[in-house]
Structure formats: C-alpha cells, structure tokens
Amino acid sequence: MIETKQHGSASSHLPDEWSAINWRQVHKNVRVMQHRIAKATMDGDWRRVKSLQRWLTRSFCAKALAVRRVTENEGKRTPGVDRQLWDSPQLKHAAIAGLKKQRYRPLPLRRVNIPKPNGKMRPLGIPTMKDRAMQALHLLALDPVLETVSDHNSYGFRKSRCTADAMQQLFIRLSRQGSATWVLDADIEGFFDNINHNWMIDKVMMDKSILKKWLKSGVVEGKQLQATKAGTPQGGIISPALANWTLNGLEAELIAHLDAKWGVAKAKKLKVGVVRYADDFVITGASKEVLCDEIQPWVEAFLAERGLKLASAKTKIVHIDEGFDFLGWNFRKYVAKNSRKLLIKPSNKNVKTFYEKLRNVISDNLTVTQEELIRMLNPMLGGWARYHTSAVAKQTFSRMDSLLYWRLMRWAKRRHPNKNASWVSQKYWRSSGDRTWVFACNVAKEDGTKGTRALYSLASTAIERHIKIKGEFNPYDPVWEKYGESLRQGRMKKNMRYRKEWTRLYADQGGKCALCGIEMDLDTGWHDHHIEYRMVGGSDSLGNRVLLHPVCHAQVHSRKLQVVKPVPE
After folding, report:
1. Exposed e or buried b for every residue in 11-42, given b needs 16+ CB within 10 A?
2. Which of these, 315, 120, 278, 304, lies nearest to 192 by C-alpha position?
3. CA distances from 508 to 94, 499, 516, 521, 547 (A)
4. Residue 87: beta bridge partners?
5. pLDDT, tens only, 45-102
6. Quick one: average pLDDT of 207-225?
7. What is the pLDDT of residues 451-468, one digit of tens each?
8. CA angle 103, 104, 109 (to 5 degrees)
C-alpha cells in the first residue's frame, strides 16, 4: 500500500494519477514479496508459494510495475490486434485497475515475421497492451520461483547472466589437459512451436487458468485466425521464462540420473557437464560412447516428455580437436608444443554475418555524409566488439578492420569518381594519436566549437577476461546481496560512467570510508555499497550508494549494520 500526501484517494490511500505513484516504494514492496516467494520455494512450501503469488498479482504495486514495464520498453509503440497503445498518463493509470483475473480473456496474437541471421523469417506473436501487462504481472510472481529452482549452468534470459558466462563455463569444462574431450552439440527442432501445452499447464508454477488462456488464445496472420495447439509464441514478455521452465532440470536431472545409475565417483569420471543458453545447449563427456549411448537417449526422452525432439540433421557429437560453434564462438583445442590449448574465437559464421551487415549499411547509404555514416557504423562496431571482448579475437578484429577499410574506400571513391586514391585518402582518412588511417571527419559540437568524429577501431579493443557468475547465485535471496554488489562492481570497472560515479562518491566522502571514517586509497581498495539493498528495491543513484573498505563492507553484511550517507565536506 502506498501513501501519498498531495495526490491520493481518501478511500483507498492509493495514488489517483500516474505521476503521483511513489516508484521507490512500489519497487520495494514488490521485491519484499518476491523474497518471500523465493524463501517459500527454497523451503518447498508450495502451498505458501501459490498464496504469495496470488497476493502479489492482486497488489497495486505489482500491477503498476507491470504497466510501467510495457509502456517504457522498446515495444511500447507496437500495438496488438486491437491497435491500442497506452501512450498517456491517464491511460496508464486506468490500465492498472484493468489488470484483473475476473472475466479476463486474452485476445489473439498479431503475427509478425522478422528476418533471422540465416536469411529465414522468425515468426513473432505480438500480444495486446493489456495481455502484455498481464504477462509482466504474472512474471513478477513466477520469476522468483524460476530463479530458485533453475539449473546452475542455465544462462539465457536470467538476471545478471549472459552468453559470456556460458562461454566461461565451457572454458572451465574443456580447457584443462584432463578435461572432457567430446561434446554433444544439440539442436532442438522447432522449440517454441512444439512445447506441449498440457505439460506446461501441469508443471509451470503459476496461475493455471491464466496460463491456459494465453496458450490457447490463437494467432491472427493477415486476416485469418489460427488456433494454437502447441508451443509458446515468441514475442511475449513471459515467453523466455516459460522456455526456461520447459528445459529446466536438463542439467540437474541428468546428473542425478548418472549418479543413481553409476554412483557418484564413477559418474564424475564420465566428465558430463551441461551448459545451456535458452534453447541452445551443449553437453560434455569423456568419450563418444558415453554421449551417444547414454546421454543422447536420456536427453531425447527428457525432451519427448515436453513434446520436443532433437533435430537429427543439426545435432552432432564432435571431438574438441575438431571444434564446435556455440553462441557465436568457436571452441577448439589446438596443438601447442607438447600440449593442447583451448582457444575460443569468434565463429566464421558470426564474422561473415556481421560483415554482411556492415556491407549492407554502407551500400544502402552511398549518398549520406561521412559523419552520418560513422554515426551508423559505430554502434554496430562497438556492440560486436564488446560481445567478443573476452574471446581470442584480436586477429579477427584486425581482419575486420581491414575488410571495412576497403569497403569504405570503395564508398569514398564512388563519391569522387574523378579523383585519385591519394586525394580520397587525404580527405577521408587522417592520423589520430598513435593511430594512422583513421576514418574521421570534423564535426560541430553543441557549444559551437569544432571536434572530430572517428570510426570505432576494432583492433584497439582490449581483450579482457569475463567475470563469471556463480551458478548458485539467486537475485531474490538476500544472502547473495554482498556477492551481487561485488559482481556488479567487477563487471562495471571498465565502464567509464561508473568510474566517474566512483570519483564523485570518493570526493563527496573526502576519500574516507563511510563506516569507519579511515582514508581509502588504491592500496586499501573500496567496495560500492547500496545503503538500501538493490534486492529490496534500492536504486543505483548516487544518493543510495557509499564507498566502504572491503573489510568494512563484509562487516556491514555479516552484522547487518546500517550505513548513513556522509554529508559532503
């Protein structure tokens, strides 16, 4: 419940307009309930889990947060079959009251096809705004359960987890001399289209009647209504969570099966490990026979129960010396002197696809200015470089820079067909610092002064090892709050925005720890601490953060001490 002094209803004490909602209190209330749901899940008290989920989905705070999510994300201007958008504060506030289970009937999805990297089309089902908000609402209640029961090495569409975590886990499983040498590279045939509805309704820990209505709502393609008899459509807010729930247990149940059949000691010698990102997964093993005769049949039975099967044409068992592609990287061991070394490089398919994107952007914009072309290319180059920054990618980056240079040279020559190559080079390329042949141009800044806009250099991207998340991490368990803070701090150190924020905090505190008052420096180090924990709705604003000595930070969490924001001197 939210109290408001200036804008509120006397009968309910709830905000009577969108701008009067106290979002900090909303986040805090929802997080507290999510913690209680996670705690009940860990205790195995499923009756209490259902009760808490029911309470949360009926609360004003959860409904307000659900409406905010669907009206602030990238799809906020994409309507469903009813062509309605919630694009005003009045409509958003009215939508909160409309999120009720009673007489709720979802409308069919609007089918939209988007191109896939392989040239094929991916069908998406676009729900209406109300159906999206209902999905977001029930996801708030489902996610704490899902995070608590998920496999440790499942990394897709989960908080604080990413593809780089999956890559690092495979490095751990495959890099040593005595590691597994065989890999089952699996591919599920039509995953989202074939999940068994009855299995989901029976197994997914959420309101069964609501889930059934979503699954059976149908799809409108063109002007034709089509029934949905299986699968969960891609495009819904809750779809990734349902997909994760479907494959959840692939790792834990497989290991339990091997332990029961072979015994714990012998099962470990099989070197079986599962790494999954959404519906993409690989399984390591000590021998081809183990994967072919024991693991693959078990996986097929696991999937069959859910209405799924492996794609025989794409599923293969490979030796690590041969290598395999996963999530845009190639994993392969190379002979180095008297040993074999695992190298993880951008896959050839990923590199080729990215170059085609660059080529298309350049060829489709032959008449734009150099400044505008750089503005288009830099986000693409920066994003691709950041994705591969923890792989062995230096050689690939240099090669891509070279290919891009010749593509840009053709673009520039086409603009000046009567000029020679030397003239074109001097006009579009220059030296900058210790770099030569920089594709750059002069630009006017907002203050009227002149500046330079240069093309992002892939070869200058630093290669840095990714900090892998612990498999047991649960964002809804307060026990993991300190670890979550240190993980976030470690990952954000290379982000210039966070460096500036730490400088500001350090200056405001006079270089002293907010707990003990003793000076901090590079020798003592410091930790970024949230006064109001992020797990209970605390924000990332500077007003909610202080710097502490590492030992003081540990003391705050172990003894549950309260830290006060120091007043700047």
Report:
1. eeebbeebebbeeeebbbbbbebbbbbbbbbe
2. 278
3. 42, 14, 15, 15, 10
4. none
5. 999 999 999 999 999 999 999 999 999 888 888 899 999 999 898 999 999 999 999 9
6. 91
7. 889 999 999 999 998 989
8. 145
